[in-house]
Design a protein that fits this description.
Number of helices of chain B: 6
Mean pLDDT of chain A: 86
Distance between the termini of chain A: 66 Å
Helix content of chain A: 25-40%
Number of strands of chain A: 26
Order of helices and strands of chain B: HHHHEEHEEEEHE
Radius of gyration of chain B: 20 Å
Largest interface: A-B, 54 and 40 residues
Strand order of the largest sheet of chain B: 2-1-7-5-6
Low-confidence stretches of chain B: 1-10, 24-65, 85-89
Oligomer: heterodimer
Largest sheet of chain A: 21 strands, mixed
Shape of chain A: globular
Largest sheet of chain B: 5 strands, mixed
Number of strands of chain B: 7
Radius of gyration of chain A: 27 Å
Mean pLDDT of chain B: 67
Structural class of chain A: alpha/beta
Strand content of chain A: 15-25%
Chain lengths: ~650, ~180
């Protein structure tokens, strides 16, 4: 007699995903066990008791044919598989699925709509489109992370133009483009705006090379634009009133963020735009939008969920200010707040009414809000999950955060005065207070004047759930402030306690010992940033050998050399990239590596004005960036980049 | 001042600058990124050997630490936004000081003082008077003078109420008040 099979899908944390099939027949409602030996990604068995199962389909099969895995596949029509794959949103899951067998690879590649490329030089646009012809959303990352800190020249690379050109040629129906650390030109933006009629979402983070003219092209030509999100980009202002170029017919905006723009926008156009986009949920304006304009905007958009203010300067005794308070009170949906680039502290009480609902608060660009005002504000924010502030908050202010924000998951404390070491006002005390008061803390970025092992050990004990832990002492080699010892034990405690740690940045006086701890305990670590640390090659070797899941390693000014670099060359094919600058690696070693590993691009960045006639292999390399790639050396490398 | 490297952005105010700081505390500007990084690798190697070097004990070269390329690791976007006027940091924060009854005003650079004590001492020296001790309750009791300042909002405030850092960034000019006006 016939049997019905129910197909369930569940995601198991460590083993990827699994399909659970239960055999149901008219007479036998209990499941039976079927084992599939070679494929750990698939299991069959009676697992109905798991809570996170989703029923995705039923198929009728002949009972004796269930034995064979291959025939199982024959009974899964492609539509069922596609439907199954719809549940897999993470690109890692989808990548795993493609490896199961050829037919799954085929079904997956035609059904993938969102593609994530962590290094734009790891693959070429043409090959990408060939594999995923139905791609609708593309995320690309360009320059290495240390480019953020002026260690990579501006024209190193990461151009988006070839990607857009290929997608135009390939007839891709692009709807979303998300770029980080890429070079974007006005030409690229114009091509983008004119080529994809369904384009909906543009997110640019830390990009450069474009002007407000490019934005004007996007505004005027993308008829269904939902999202324009510009985060921390360097944009040249061309005074062309780009915002006024949104046509009157544009009512689809859901998210508009132009906080990073330096120039003026037409306030009347902005107000009209906000008024006609009733689905607008997120609005972040720049400093050129004054407080009274903000009030008029809020009056039109009480449904906002995320608000970034412009200039928050006004006379608190004025009529406008009272109106602002009233408008703010009507914005009961705002859960995320940022901005305050210019601020009159006495105007801050206007936002107290929304503080109660805030889950995200970013005051890291508000140097005008001093510690006392900051603390008064935070006292109202007891639902906060994400807080970004300047170190003017002080240890005392962090103490207030610790006692008020019990839901806090992520904290970032940035330095307020970068040029003068010695005036910073947070220390290890603030960090310890936060760790003690906020049990849900899992992500931290902390710039501080000093640190101690004892504090780090306490933090490790209080917060074993860190996923991201980034500590930056303003003096990069400062020892434990009390014992004068290296900070090895402190960071060692962190990796030992936080078993799920994925990202780590360290600083302070550190020896090879701390890397021994990383290699031994940081088993889930994916990204590690090292500066001015370690004593010898052993340090780097501990990390390369022990951190099995390492994807990105970036090292500067540390005494790691050829022995460490060449010990396990195959390791680099399991990683996205390795950056080493001002270390002990020589040109000869880099050449050896490049020669032995054709699937890696080994780039040497040499900025010195004098080009040496005889390039000596024994010479130390200033900056080396290597990454795995399927397409060999890139053709757009500038003069100062030498791919070996 | 021939020995100082001239930087493209440097207004050469150094040559005419009136400073009250200690001699030899000029900040070295380095044009070549590579050199700066090498210099500081040496520095840090020296530091590693010095286990008794205290973190705060960097009086001799505070500026060099802040000149390491890319340290602290803060995005340039953020650096430019939070500290937009680097040139101001180099040229000083001069404010006018008026004293009731004096024929002309003076100017002082607030940046060179570490706190209220130093500032008040300097004012006492400059105007040959005594200002006395600050107390929250009674202001500057025991003297016929009271130091006041005009803040960003244009209000006249008593010197000493707010933290020093807040004071130097909000103080627009100083006024030494005298006599019956001075005592609240």
């Amino acid at each position: 007699m016939d049997t019905y099979i129910n197909i369930y899908i569940e995601r198991e944390r460590d083993r990827g995903f699994g399909f659970f099939l239960t055999e149901l027949s008219d007479y036998n409602r209990s499941g039976s066990n079927l084992k599939v030996e070679d494929n750990p990604e698939l299991y069959f068995g009676p697992k109905i008791f798991r809570s996170s199962l989703h029923l995705i389909g039923s198929a009728r099969v002949k009972k004796d044919q269930m034995r064979s895995f291959q025939s199982m596949l024959n009974y899964f029509p492609e539509e069922v598989l596609e439907h199954v794959f719809d549940f897999l949103t993470s690109h890692r899951d989808r990548n795993a699925v493609s490896l199961v067998c050829k037919s799954w690879y085929a079904v997956e590649r035609f059904s993938r709509e969102k593609v994530f490329i962590g290094n734009c030089y790891a693959i070429s646009p043409d090959r990408l489109i060939a594999r995923f012809p139905r791609v609708r959303s593309l995320t690309l990352k360009g320059k290495p992370h240390f480019a953020d800190f002026n260690l990579v020249p501006h024209d190193w690379g990461g151009y988006v133009q070839p990607w857009i050109e290929s997608m135009v040629k390939g007839g891709v129906n692009l709807e979303e483009l998300r770029l980080k650390r890429m070079l974007v030109s006005d030409e690229s933006l114009e091509l983008l705006a004119n080529s994809f009629p369904n384009f909906k979402s543009l997110v640019l983070v830390s990009c450069e090379g474009f002007t407000t003219d490019g934005l004007a092209a996007i505004a005027s030509n993308c008829r269904f634009l939902r999202e324009l999100d510009l985060q921390e980009n360097e944009v040249e202002d061309r005074r062309g009133q780009w915002l006024s170029r949104f046509p009157d017919s544009c009512t689809s905006l859901v998210s508009l963020n132009f906080a990073c723009l330096k120039g003026e926008v037409n306030l009347a156009s902005l107000e009209r735009l906000v008024a006609r986009c009733c689905n607008l949920r997120s609005l972040r304006v720049n400093h050129a939008v004054p407080l009274d304009a903000l009030q008029r905007i809020l009056a039109q958009a009480p449904q906002l969920v995320d608000l970034g203010t412009g200039s928050f300067v006004h006379d608190p005794d004025s009529e406008s200010y009272n109106k602002l308070e009233t408008s703010m009170q009507k914005c009961t949906s705002i859960t995320s707040l940022s901005g305050f680039l210019d601020v009159t502290a006495r105007c801050l009480p206007a936002i107290y009414s929304i503080c109660r609902h805030l889950t995200t608060l970013n005051l890291s660009y508000a140097p005008g809000i001093y510690s006392d005002e900051l603390v008064k504000l935070i006292c109202h924010c007891n639902k906060l999950e994400r807080l970004l502030v300047l170190d003017t908050i002080g240890d005392k202010g962090l103490g207030v955060v610790a006692s008020t924000c019990k839901e806090l998951q992520e904290l970032r404390v940035f330095p307020s005065d970068i040029y003068v070491v010695g005036n910073a006002s947070v220390t290890e005390e603030g960090l310890v207070a936060i760790s003690a008061g906020c049990p849900k803390l899992n992500s931290i970025l902390y710039f501080c004047q000093q640190m101690t092992n004892a504090a780090l050990i306490t933090v490790a004990k209080n917060c074993p759930n860190f996923i991201r832990f980034r500590l930056c002492t303003l003096n990069p080699t400062v020892p434990d402030a009390v014992t004068m010892q290296p900070l090895d034990e402190g960071f060692g405690a962190i990796v030992k306690s936080c078993k799920g740690l994925k990202r780590l940045s360290v600083s302070g006086l550190l020896t090879d010992q701390v890397f021994l701890y990383f290699g031994r305990y940081a088993k889930q670590l994916e990204m590690l940033s090292i500066a001015f640390a370690g004593d010898s090659d052993k340090g780097m070797l501990y990390v390369l050998n022990g951190c099995k899941k390492l994807k990105k390693l970036e090292i500067r000014d540390s005494p790691f050399g050829n022995v460490a670099l060449l010990a396990d060359m195959g390791k680099y094919e399991t990683m996205r990239s390795l950056w080493m600058s001002s270390c002990e690696v020589t040109l000869g070693a880099c050449k050896t590596l490049a020669q032995k590993m054709p699937k890696l691009n080994v780039e040497i960045i040499n900025e010195s004005d004098q080009m040496e006639d005889s390039v000596d292999d024994k010479q130390k390399v200033e900056k080396m960036y290597l990454y795995r790639t399927l397409v060999g050396p890139r053709k757009d490398a500038p003069d100062f980049v030498w791919t070996l | 001042m021939e020995g100082i490297m001239s930087h493209e952005n440097d207004l050469n105010l150094k040559a005419t600058e009136l400073r009250l700081g200690l001699p030899g505390t000029d900040e070295p500007t380095s044009k070549n990124n590579k050199r700066a990084a090498n210099e500081l690798v040496e520095d840090s190697e020296l530091l590693k050997g010095k286990s008794d070097a205290k973190a705060g004990d960097i009086e001799t070269a505070p500026a060099s630490k802040s000149q390491i390329v890319g340290w602290p690791p803060v995005r340039s976007y953020r650096k430019n936004v939070v500290q937009p006027k680097k040139t101001e940091a180099e040229t000083g924060n001069y404010v006018k000081v008026s004293m009731d009854g004096a024929p002309y005003l003076r100017k002082i650079d607030l940046k060179i003082y570490k706190g209220y004590q130093e500032l008040l001492k300097a004012l006492e020296n400059m105007f040959k008077l005594t200002i006395g001790e600050y107390s929250e309750r009674e202001g500057y009791k025991g003297s016929e003078y009271a130091p006041a300042y005009e803040d960003k909002d244009g209000d006249l405030m008593l010197v000493g109420d707010v933290p020093w850092d807040m004071f130097i960034s909000t103080c627009k000019r100083l006024r030494i008040m005298r006599g019956s006006e001075a005592t609240a």
